[in-house]
Design brief:
Layout lengths: L2 E5 L1 H8 L8 H10 L4 E4 L10 H10 L3 E6 L3 H10 L3 E4 L19 H13 L3 E6 L6 H10 L3 E5 L1 H6 L5 H17 L3 E5 L7 H7 L3 E6 L1 H10 L1 H11 L2
Parallel strand pairs: 1-2, 1-8, 2-3, 3-4, 4-5, 5-6, 6-7, 7-8
Length: about 240
């Protein structure tokens, strides 16, 4: 069964808007785990606009499920990862000012950097995942991916989500299925995330059942406003069965 990792950044965004500790991000993170989530994802940014460094340490010290830290692998990120030693680091190519991760790596162009970064994380016993846009993934990129020595990729699923319910869906989903098959044949694991929700998640997992983990934040927190957190986590887990 595909695991559900909940991105709790949005909870921190709400907290930070008032400058106090409501909602309590750590408490809600523990509640999310109690309701059945198998992992927690955070994406700390240099400006601290949502998850902050102190949140990362607090969560790391409090949870026993898989911890995934996502971010651009500059030296500050690598220092944090080395100190916290999460189960996984998901490496994204976005600079600090962007609103959200919305592009995959250009692997061939960044191969030496990524190879060295992944080797550094592996020395700390941290699994690595590279954010990949299937719509821009060429055979050359596949060759470069194998050379990075990454453990997993994360399929950037915004294009799939945008096409869901439209005539374009079969064509778009076929691209994702092809890339997933090729990557699987390299012995590299597959994660997925971005704009996956209660409407489109089950269809995606049925098409690509070898997805090891999905990371979902924004849509899940929005659904929790309607259904409550416990019910929402249950509904997402049902989609993954």
């Amino acid at each position: 069964m595909t695991k559900l990792s909940v991105n709790v950044n949005k909870l921190a965004t709400i907290r930070n808007s008032r400058g106090k500790n409501n909602p309590d991000v750590l408490k809600m993170t523990l509640d999310i785990i109690a309701y059945g989530a198998q992992g927690i994802t955070v994406h700390p940014r240099p400006d601290g606009r949502h998850i902050r460094k102190e949140d990362v340490y607090a969560i790391a010290n409090a949870i026993e499920v898989e911890f995934n830290i996502e971010g651009y692998p500059d030296q500050h990120f690598l220092n944090l990862a080395s100190a916290v030693k999460p189960a996984q680091c998901t490496l994204v190519p976005d600079p600090p000012h962007v609103l959200t991760s919305n592009a995959g790596w250009e692997l061939e162009k960044n191969l030496p950097f990524l190879r060295d970064t992944i080797a550094t994380l592996h020395q700390s016993g941290i699994r690595t995942s590279l954010f990949i846009d299937p719509m821009r993934f060429t055979p050359q990129e596949l060759d470069a991916l194998a050379q990075t020595k990454t453990d997993r990729i994360e399929l950037y699923t915004e294009t799939y989500a945008d096409a869901f319910g439209s005539d374009r869906l079969p064509e778009i989903l076929a691209v994702y299925e092809k890339i997933a098959t090729e990557v699987d044949q390299l012995g590299i694991g597959i994660n997925a995330g971005h704009d996956l929700n209660l409407d489109n998640l089950k269809h995606f997992i049925q098409a690509i059942p070898n997805v090891a983990e999905v990371s979902i934040g924004h849509a899940l927190i929005c659904d929790a406003l309607n259904f409550g957190m416990r019910e929402t986590i249950g509904r997402y887990l049902d989609c993954l069965k």
